[in-house]
Amino acid sequence: MWQTNWRERTSAMLSDRKWDIVIIGGGITGAGILLEAARNGMRALLVEQRDFAWGTSSRSSKLVHGGLRYLKEGKLLLTRDSVHEREQLLKDAAGLVEPQGFAFADYRGRKPGRWMFSLGLALYDMMAGKRSRHYFRPDEFLLLAPHIATDDLQGGLCYTDAKTDDARLVLRVLQEAIAAGGVAINYMAARQLVRRDGRVCGVELQDGVTGQRQAVEAKAVISATGAWADALRQQAKSGAKLRPLRGSHLVLPAWRLPVAQAISLMHPQDGRPVFAFPWEGVTLVGTTDVDHREDMRNEAAITQQELAYLMAALDFQFPQLRITRDDIIATFAGVRPVIDSGKTDPSKEGRDHAVWLEDGLLTVTGGKLTTFRLIARDALNHAAPLLRGRHISRRSRPVFAPAPPLPYDGKLTSFQRRRLVGRHGGFARLLVAAAQEGELETIPGTDTLYAELRWAARREAVLHLEDLMLRRTRLGLLLREGGAELLPRVRAICQAELGWDDARWANEQAAYVALWRKHYSVPPAQGAQAPRRAA
Known about the structure:
Blueprint: H1 6-13, E1 19-24, H2 28-39, E2 44-47, E3 63-64, H3 68-72, H4 76-92, E4 97-107, H5 114-128, E5 134-136, H6 138-144, E6 153-164, H7 166-179, E7 183-185, E8 188-196, E9 199-207, E10 213-223, H8 229-235, E11 242-253, E12 262-266, E13 273-279, E14 282-286, E15 290-291, H9 304-317, E16 330-339, E17 353-358, E18 361-366, H10 372-383, H11 414-424, H12 428-434, H13 450-459, H14 465-472, H15 475-478, H16 487-498, H17 502-519
Parallel strand pairs: 1-2, 1-10, 2-7, 4-12, 10-18
Antiparallel strand pairs: 3-6, 4-6, 5-6, 8-9, 9-10, 11-14, 11-15, 11-16, 12-13, 13-14, 17-18
Helix pairs in contact: 2-7, 2-10, 13-16
């Protein structure tokens, strides 16, 4: 991974090396392209203007799924590909991508109804090559999904999909890509496309730390910037094609909304699917699907209207729990890159990915987290004419190189060992070895070990406190007030590893707390006065 002084060494060699590919965008799509390119022996560079996974790839619904809803829309090939990739990820990324049972209550008079839903699940299982669906009588179903509304309950269907920590998935893909010879650097912005004879042949970069600018050239420049892709395309004189859609989520304590299965329902207002499922020691609730008309340079945040929409879904499905806004630990919102087809209802826009080659700039956007490898391979196939003399292998490989399991020594549970290997692969042993006394304990309210903080600060390209709290770990989502009470312990573990003096730490902490309050907290109730910040 990224070692001491890695950034200075990487910045110094960017313009000196002859690159086959420069990838702009450090989310799951860009990381996937870097991995596939590096495995094909290409000299590949990835640059990200913020932090790795800063955008959509740390703010998704955390589901690795086949897209059951796409069957209703006739997207059989998209669903099939997604199911196959889900199964491969479950096999190759165990501990990072894990099975998740889903429970869908069958109420009298509510769509889609038992038989229609069973038909979709039968196709779903056929694509996966195994049966996971089962129908339960009301009394049996309530054992699997307690606290749900019982009026008109006829029973329920259960099936299996998968979930992940999306930001950690990006980091694991980047880890594999770097091991294969790829280069990735965060806080390095692509300011201007470089052209020769009217065609894109490189990009001018600006270091977000030093401000230094330099130009790098490549046979192919690939924009994998997701919902931000139109900004670069417009430099190539291309018109806008994207419709940014915002999906917002709530994070609640597991004890307040206890679910072992993911509970899926159709929202009473518009029939859209809404879910609640266990994730990283909390319960995640989502999601909305609305047009995002805010400045794309700023972080997305949940709105009062979206909060009310999700709370209405919870009140509808779990009336006896009487969940209120005071129960919410955190919120987060991501912007999806959806191709604009002009549909009135944003939820009906397609989720297929698209690839455009315009004046030498190859743009890939859209698609699903689950199919990131297929999207990466498609992008490289489209780039083949630009990669003169470079062969792109079609051989199927595991998602990740096999990593040795952590030995049993009594310090970690089997769940913790599996989890660490899933997130860190071959580096899991080094992470455990680096732990100091008490750091193999779990941070209360989460599944995270204190040792993960030390390792991230030491070897995972952390430049700001928000990188550590929101993406390398997810403590900013899992703990109230973004983990403010934990920050003294975080400082004791990480400050020396990061090489920050006291003034730098104070500035980083103030910036992180302000960011969390603005974009990850519960928005003030309408008409309520926002609380004053402490001086």
